[in-house]
Amino acid sequence: MSIRIGILGYGNLGRGVECAVKHNPDMELVAVFTRRDPKTVNILTETAEVYSVDEAEMMKDKIDVLILCGGSATDLPVQTPKFAQWFNVVDSFDTHAKIPEHFADVDKTASQNGHVGIISVGWDPGMFSLNRMYANAILTNGKDYTFWGKGVSQGHSDAIRRIEGVKDGKQYTIPVDAALEAVRKGENPELTTRQKHTRECFVVAEEGADLARIEQEIKTMPNYFDEYDTTVHFISQEELKAEHSGIPHGGFVIRSGRTGWNDENSHIIEYSLKLDSNPEFTSSVIVAYARAAYRMNQEGQKGCKTVFDVAPAYLSALDGAELRKHLL
Amino acid sequence: MSIRIGILGYGNLGRGVECAVKHNPDMELVAVFTRRDPKTVNILTETAEVYSVDEAEMMKDKIDVLILCGGSATDLPVQTPKFAQWFNVVDSFDTHAKIPEHFADVDKTASQNGHVGIISVGWDPGMFSLNRMYANAILTNGKDYTFWGKGVSQGHSDAIRRIEGVKDGKQYTIPVDAALEAVRKGENPELTTRQKHTRECFVVAEEGADLARIEQEIKTMPNYFDEYDTTVHFISQEELKAEHSGIPHGGFVIRSGRTGWNDENSHIIEYSLKLDSNPEFTSSVIVAYARAAYRMNQEGQKGCKTVFDVAPAYLSALDGAELRKHLL
Questions:
Q1: Which of A296, B210, B235, B259 has the most CB atoms around it within 10 Å of its CB?
Q2: In sequence order, which residues have a C-beta less than 8 Å from that of residue B67 and are 6 or more positions away?
């Protein structure tokens, strides 16, 4: 029997989850829940139905894992604990500073109702966190580096679009090659924000807008751009659409550490991602953890978990013997 | 209270474990067991004792985890199941084809005696296996590549030294850059053995030996060298000692895969290691898994496990709340 999946929220991430479920033959998409009028939401999976979010509780016995695809700012802090009363849940909550609070909230309802909730799944938090953790446990004497990009930052793109005279825009975060190379050589550099990443903006200005003023406003914007070397390119709406409509991302997690009786040997552990589609990759991670949530719950586990708490084998459709034979 | 560690076998790996224990303040080395005369074995840790391997059973209540540092060919198939009757054990069994059999043997005694045995821990098998498994679970539609090196292959170095007229020698396995680059670009190349790695040999010949014949014998040696492009350098014993006495290694695990409703997006997951000392890094991984073996056993778990079965959090000295706060 397939693992029955529900999706709450049908944006880029929800659509990514739908695609990822298609790539996992032991799963089936049963329902998509939306806050919009269900009649206006067209999904790709012919065998699944679209429902109003208010109908979710009624489906609690027909879905094994509900995947929450809302935003971290306002949706998930409310939705994940709420829906954990009826379902095993997985979310991609990514407000790092608020993870302890979110964990406690989800743990409470999930535990009370005998469900498993896995939070903060994706690549950062998610696979990057796992790699930081494994590398720290192995090389206890060392230094961590995380670089992001090259990729589109939604938050920075939004910030550009809020500037007066800007019609549209896209921002790329780019790791600085020289910094990456210094880290890979085991030089353990102390790097400032400016030394680690640059920012590149592609901006469509409104007709007659003051380009010099827009460029200045971007480059000096506090928190978003002022601590970075930023490049601004003004382009046409057509060019933005043709060249910059993808959502690529990626990055690097590197730990450099020393071993030996007198710390005489140096080691570098590096994990990197190069992603054509940030939401589709994130969704693919989430769907693997949905399998884990289902299986852990089947074994009687409950409460809130993160990627740190999930034994890797739970993620795979292969059984233990197959894994040992083919992948160990 | 510290986790009390024992080491069985004091070669490069055993010494590496000793160094790794020093880097983990929640652990202490209690005993080293040897098949040699204990009086001839000098260890670095002043607070630990050296015993004959025959005295191990007597120490069963004084050691939480015994780390087996013997070889995979003849030592571990016997030792790991045997000592699992008295101890939680961790080994680095690396004969891939015989892992299922070894797993069954260790599982039997470990389960019967209420211990945890974690086998095949290190980097390959070990961290490379984990990365293959995670990447396969995420990108279900894709292709795996593993490259090894640049690093010293003990087996190939031994093979060179068995040739008549060879006094000493060292062999490096080197990944082919062009192949690595093609994989990273998502080209999904089909690569032959020759296209993936080259082999470089540094050989000290006996005086008057026929160098051309030695070089020919190396390059045509079945299984070891005949399927590779091999370079042979004849050097002096002094140069070998000065330039090639380290045991560096490393490698790359890459998975290239596609997502999207029509497989329209491509992704690359890459994990790489660059190690000054192969045995010290392997030992550092093993020691983290010794912590896991101890904790899992404390929770009542028993039987044989591999890296696939161990939730990442068990490896870290930090507790769940600290991990979520600092590394998620």
A1: B259
A2: B5, B6, B7, B8, B14, B17, B89, B90, B91, B286, B287, B290
